[in-house]
Amino acid sequence: xxxxxxxxxxxxxxxxxxxxxxxxxxxxxxxxxxxxxxxxxxxxxxxxxxxxxxxxxxxxxxxxxxxxxxxxxxxxxxxxxxxxxxxxxxxxxxxxxxxxxxxxxxxxxxxxxxxxxxxxxxxxxxxxxxxxxxxxxxxxxxxxxxxxxxxxxxxxxxxxxxxxxxxxxxxxxxxxxxxxxxxxxxxxxxxxxxxxxxxxxxxxxxxxxxxxxxxxxxxxxxxxxxxxxxxxxxxxxxxxxxxxxxxxxxxxxxxxxxxxxxxxxxxxxxxxxxxxxxxxxxxxxxxxxxxxxxxxxxxxxxxxxxxxxxxxxxxx
Amino acid sequence: xxxxxxxxxxxxxxxxxxxxxxxxxxxxxxxxxxxxxxxxxxxxxxxxxxxxxxxxxxxxxxxxxxxxxxxxxxxxxxxxxxxxxxxxxxxxxxxxxxxxxxxxxxxxxxxxxxxxxxxxxxxxxxxxxxxxxxxxxxxxxxxxxxxxxxxxxxxxxxxxxxxxxxxxxxxxxxxxxxxxxxxxxxxxxxxxxxxxxxxxxxxxxxxxxxxx
Lengths: 316, 212
Known about the structure:
- The structure holds 2 protein chains of 2 kinds.
- Chain A is an alpha+beta fold.
- Helix content of chain A is 24%, strand content 21%.
- Chain A has 10 helices and 13 strands.
- Chain A has helices at residues 17-21, 23-48, 71-76, 89-97, 119-122, 152-158, 182-185, 197-201, 253-257, 300-303, and strands at residues 57-58, 104-109, 115-118, 129-136, 141-151, 167-172, 192-196, 206-211, 214-215, 225-227, 240-246, 281-284, 291-292.
- In chain A, strand 2 and strand 3 (115-118) form a beta hairpin.
- The relative contact order of chain A is 0.15.
- Chain B is mainly alpha-helical.
- Chain B has one domain.
- Helices cover 80% and strands 0% of the residues of chain B.
- In chain B, helix 2 runs antiparallel to helix 3, helix 2 runs parallel beside helix 9 (170-205) and helix 5 runs antiparallel to helix 8.
- The termini of chain B are far apart.
- The chains are: A alpha+beta, B mainly alpha.
- The A-B interface holds A 70, 72-74, 76-77, 81, 85, 87-88, 139, 141, 184-187, 257-258, 273, 276-278, 280-281, 283, 285-286, 289-290 and B 32-34, 36-37, 95-97, 102, 105-106, 109-112, 163-164, 166-170.
């Protein structure tokens, strides 16, 4: 058996004589120094280790009967084009570069109570729920993740949207110094997304602040993102800085980039192929073969009624 | 049997390094969260690289005055076929698991797969006819003309790559640039040869003897 031996004391560990002599005065200053020190240390530590534990309650909206993916997969295989277009790049580049504190989200547009809300306040709007959802990427892979957050509707209702509000527009942080240029990313930036009002207000639409019992890692969209389980992953916008109530359909990044490939709705639909690949099947990360993709990613019972009378081949 | 040259053995071994690298990563569980996608991209990248190497031989022979480089061309070209086959087998066996229905739909309907498959068919044909026996049977001229299909193969490969990516086209553009340089070189050589041929034939046809 290997017994770890603590290293011997080095000379540098010896308390300086001046400190020793003034030790009572020194001790009096310790609490203040500790506070200042932790303040100084915390940004870098936050940048690297990043996540902290979150207290959650169980949710009735959690998806049961699915094997949850390894956290390792969910945190190293990411699409976050602002930090690189390869799957492995965001986990390397986002943690040191994405500054998530301080963080405020501006809620604006057609509402009675527009406001700027800090991430600390967002965490206190409602009890944080753990919700397991299937998450299906438009690239035909999928994961099952225990997200943490609460229904977006809770936050939206506080702003009291007016009847003029028909859609909600969302915007991701764009920090030119920390992120790729639109040319490098290949898509226009800042990243924007949008939902119809009823989609945004649907209880399944999660305002997400964490996963796997902790706050969100940078590459997964820290500090606050959406998770809309019945839509392709790119609709679940990351690192949100702006939420705006608007009267008409807002632009959405991938839709603007290639409208024939990525629709505004982008509901998971096995019958509607992407022009370049089939959407009938998907690879669940960690599994060998492909499994059938489910209509609305299996959430049809809850959300199909939102699209009654709509031709989903046309409004893809 | 003739003993192969040491340099050929070396190039053969070097050409296999990517496969061993892939195996090493697999052994260490470093194929990312989506290993099948990783292997597909890895073997696809190396197919394009070996096509570039193959097409670089002729310009390098001329520019470096090393005509003997020709002795490596077939082997390097066959390695392009080798990596293309691994690429296709990954798709066929591991990705789609012989789901012929879906594979045929892919090949017929998804343009980038149609192009990639066409490039593979070309490489197989060139691989089969790469032996000395086939050169003899076909005759040098016809064989050469057939093997110019490698130009089409690399162009199809680049477009196949370009159309398969979502938005970041920097890598496909890079291979497109290399292919354009290598094919452009041949275009320039062909045009200047043609000018010489035309000049020579008008010289022959002229009734007056050329001034000496």
